[in-house]
Here is the input.
Amino acid sequence: MPEVQPISNETWDLLKAPSTATLTTVLAKKGLWNTFLTGVKPLGPNSKMAGRAFTLRYIPAREDLDSSLEFDNATDPQRIAIEQVGPGDVLVIDARGDERGGTMGAILATRMHVRGAAGVVTDGAFRDSPVIAELEMPAYARSAHAATNKTIHHPCDLQLPIACAGVAVYPGDVLIGDEEGVVVIPPHLADEVAREAAAQEHREDFIIDKIRGGAPLVGTYPMDDATRAEYERTLKQ
Amino acid sequence: MPEVQPISNETWDLLKAPSTATLTTVLAKKGLWNTFLTGVKPLGPNSKMAGRAFTLRYIPAREDLDSSLEFDNATDPQRIAIEQVGPGDVLVIDARGDERGGTMGAILATRMHVRGAAGVVTDGAFRDSPVIAELEMPAYARSAHAATNKTIHHPCDLQLPIACAGVAVYPGDVLIGDEEGVVVIPPHLADEVAREAAAQEHREDFIIDKIRGGAPLVGTYPMDDATRAEYERTLKQ
Amino acid sequence: MPEVQPISNETWDLLKAPSTATLTTVLAKKGLWNTFLTGVKPLGPNSKMAGRAFTLRYIPAREDLDSSLEFDNATDPQRIAIEQVGPGDVLVIDARGDERGGTMGAILATRMHVRGAAGVVTDGAFRDSPVIAELEMPAYARSAHAATNKTIHHPCDLQLPIACAGVAVYPGDVLIGDEEGVVVIPPHLADEVAREAAAQEHREDFIIDKIRGGAPLVGTYPMDDATRAEYERTLKQ
Amino acid sequence: MPEVQPISNETWDLLKAPSTATLTTVLAKKGLWNTFLTGVKPLGPNSKMAGRAFTLRYIPAREDLDSSLEFDNATDPQRIAIEQVGPGDVLVIDARGDERGGTMGAILATRMHVRGAAGVVTDGAFRDSPVIAELEMPAYARSAHAATNKTIHHPCDLQLPIACAGVAVYPGDVLIGDEEGVVVIPPHLADEVAREAAAQEHREDFIIDKIRGGAPLVGTYPMDDATRAEYERTLKQ
Amino acid sequence: MPEVQPISNETWDLLKAPSTATLTTVLAKKGLWNTFLTGVKPLGPNSKMAGRAFTLRYIPAREDLDSSLEFDNATDPQRIAIEQVGPGDVLVIDARGDERGGTMGAILATRMHVRGAAGVVTDGAFRDSPVIAELEMPAYARSAHAATNKTIHHPCDLQLPIACAGVAVYPGDVLIGDEEGVVVIPPHLADEVAREAAAQEHREDFIIDKIRGGAPLVGTYPMDDATRAEYERTLKQ
Amino acid sequence: MPEVQPISNETWDLLKAPSTATLTTVLAKKGLWNTFLTGVKPLGPNSKMAGRAFTLRYIPAREDLDSSLEFDNATDPQRIAIEQVGPGDVLVIDARGDERGGTMGAILATRMHVRGAAGVVTDGAFRDSPVIAELEMPAYARSAHAATNKTIHHPCDLQLPIACAGVAVYPGDVLIGDEEGVVVIPPHLADEVAREAAAQEHREDFIIDKIRGGAPLVGTYPMDDATRAEYERTLKQ
Here is the structure.
């Protein structure tokens, strides 16, 4: 597991601009093909997210351990996680893709929001989803399910590498979310991904403007020499 | 199968306030863990529903029985059901989770609405879903599919216990729906569930206000003695 | 494979009015039971679509052929398809239902829109889905995924019969889309389907008005002799 | 629902010879395309089965009704069914395709075998499957699962039409099983299906002998006039 | 997580006799309903297994960490696990149910066998499955897949609580396997489960003998007073 | 698409020896990670297969084209394929993974066997599977289903690149099958894959012998210098 490295403000600024589609392409060009959480969608209108993974892992519930529905803030990894995440953190939950119960409700999500968390992501469901959808803090899930998490899930541990929606997420990974979903960026690649994504986004804005104006794909996408020269002239302006 | 019991107006009033998430928790505390219809969502903006289950069961279509696309109001259980449901009834359809055809269209849904039905729920799909979504009567389904129900489904019988979205639904069960989905409450538990859910909802409103104001989970959720005393003071006011 | 036949303007006009639910019923009455794309939904608010199938087939990617992320407009069937579709064409993509990668992004969809395409349909996912959703040209997919198409898909060939969402689509098939989804009509049936659907839609509008006014199903849906006579009087007016 | 009719001994004898593949083809020629239980396989080496459907329906368990693990032979529909099936009956269980628990164990299956039942079919799992596999009475299921049926299933009623593995099964339907699986034949078609299947099987034996001897498909399968004449000569011998 | 307790030889002897079906019922009577690994089957004829869980967790592979196909015995948790398991241990692998790659091959399984391991269980696939199937050491999996584990899986850590085939498995849990599959028993319940299972198995052997002899369910299963008295007489002999 | 190249006899001999697990690893080392057909298993005891892909593509059936159940050897691509395959060919069928109908029966499989075909592979089901399982020619499928192929499938074309069980298969690809399943090798890699696989298999036989003799993983797998020297000495003998 690569060491967790700090991300500069400049890189954060660059990472917030491009779409997850652009970031996924840049990562694929670096050989990382499986970085987008399949099937995980934003709950509400606030879907622009940037932060670092704080991981929480659930395993299946077992009746003698989980049926009390009592929650102990001192020992329950879910509760501990909520009170540890802070500004810039995205809580990422490995729920094994099991949507037969919620993985978090409105009170805990609100607490995270008050603590300044950058977002929350699960490959299962949220409960109280209409309330969570209205938080300013972005939230991503497969679906909504009203059942409390202990029906199906046992909060097991935190800050370990996890699986989320088929993608490996390591603590400290950079997570960017938009209306389309969430992409995972290994931190040691964040600087170069940020720069290349900004450049690609800029280039594609130029291209899509030309396409809207009637340019054909040939010569435009990818750019031939003439178009590239024209693009470079616009860069200088 | 427990006998169907009338629900008092007071209980109905209490049941309409809490979210399905709260009701599901109260039921779990009573040992009923599988009461929320997994994967069934409201079609349109009207999603607040309260009523009692009137069940309709479909089995797979067979070509010699179902390919005519003629419908006989006198013998077709679907048609009979539509003309039997009345105020306070929620038609619940067991479609085996099969989404490859509709289970009801706009004309029948409109008829139910005119008859005063409280809602309609299927673990399959609706057809004419844009029209149904605009009815004042809430409707819940897995998805939309334009095919007529006889393509895939044969209306078989009514008012028997059924499976809907993985949950047992008995005729007369209390169904509460909101933006998150639908919860099934056995009628013999309705009174106590209603009271406990109202109390829990009230308590959680108090808690979420404190969390919004910056209180940590410890001491607040669950409440410690000091917070509980404070909460009880607010109850007396 | 039946020969591709031109569709008259009058038929197009008739086909644009009815819902996909009505068209699916008319096709079922003719013995065609599997004509609606299961699980494929409109991306944005523009969902009224009418056009003819221009097919594009993907197979799984293979690393030595697809990992370069270079795109050649002269040889890539996806790129060739984009520059061949024109007014009245609906690009239909066979993505094997695999949602683990996009099948098209904003630049190509925009190009198709500029070329006058009537729509685009995939049984996989789109990337840049927020941008595509805002195009005037309707787009239908199972879901959104940010990964570039070559992660999962290899554009293989065009204008062959394909599978899309469990339905056979032949080049030239008539595709009609609305808020509910997409129906496939063999062109040799288009004229009669159009006429019968218009008649059925007209009849059902009459019926639903009566149902809204309180008429029971019996005598109204299906119509008995008295109602039919009343309906025929309205036709004459 | 067509009335249940007796099947003659001659028809039974004819029905026992052909494979389920042949019977499925004969039914398809009569317009019945969905008659084979998808995904249901024989448990053990005894897989030749012929009998009539005695149906049993399960719905999801509910904790207050099903968690006692006490079984009452007088009221439990599963127990009642076991003591009602007799010679020529095949117990067919609608388990909603849910394989997360057994639907029957060795003691009940043995009792059915002692009573002379012709077989047992479930679209869920059996428990004690190694013991059931060794019974002389054929048994078909999707899989094996050790959990008792009340974990997941509530025996609901018997002798109603059911869904089993995606196929409609009516009480009294003729069920034929072999190593490949189980086909459902409506009894009003049993005589003609039996005769045509016997004829088809005979014809295909002739064809496969020719194919083994080196004959090409053309002229052989389907037979041209010369081959048909040759076949008819063999019929006369 | 309950503390891991030693299991006495007497308990092991009792646990090896009953079927997983009997053990699952005994656990259900104690309120533990989800203890059998759904969909996990023995690979070969050696399927009688008894041991304690040694857990190994996989997460999805990431190309920059996993594509080398070099394996380091000093740091790879899979390799470390293999050299730590000993007599009485069952290696249980959390492969997220992903069958698109192997989770272990013949060389490592052979090494575990040589080290005296009691078995190996995965909720994914094995590679070299024909070789593993012939080992004396029992092995359980969902299926077989030839791809090396690093194609899909990243060995992450060991001896943590895991999910396997939908069931929670804690290090030290007692695992019993037979031809039907694998059941998980919390160690603090092992003694009483062992005793009750032995008693139940003995009782059911008596019952099934009576059923084979023609006794009806009523009076026999469950036993009435007369049968129970008869059974108790046999106990004394 | 790379050109189809002949495979030397020496390469064939080398390719027949190693397991599909070994071949899949060698391909992964060359950057091809997705070459094994997930979920496709041998039908019978004859599972050692080596040959080149002859592809056949099915799309969903449409009633007006496929319901006649008449088969025309002159125009039906399935029939044409059967009479074109010869010694060394493996017919590979793209059935979209749809197991709700057979993709081939005993007569056609027998004809292929008589023509000397090396095998047949489908990502759907076979019908007459007990007969096909007994052919000397190996056959691989997901499952068995008695329905004729035209119930679900329309034979569409042959010798195009296809998808089979999630893997791209190009005409002429080298297919190797064993008890575990089927691996696809691009022909331009066949020589080097063959040589490296033979070497790897030889090396792994040496390793597994040492492991059986009690050697630990460290120093043995992977080999350290001493073990490698010992291995090289055995090579010289």
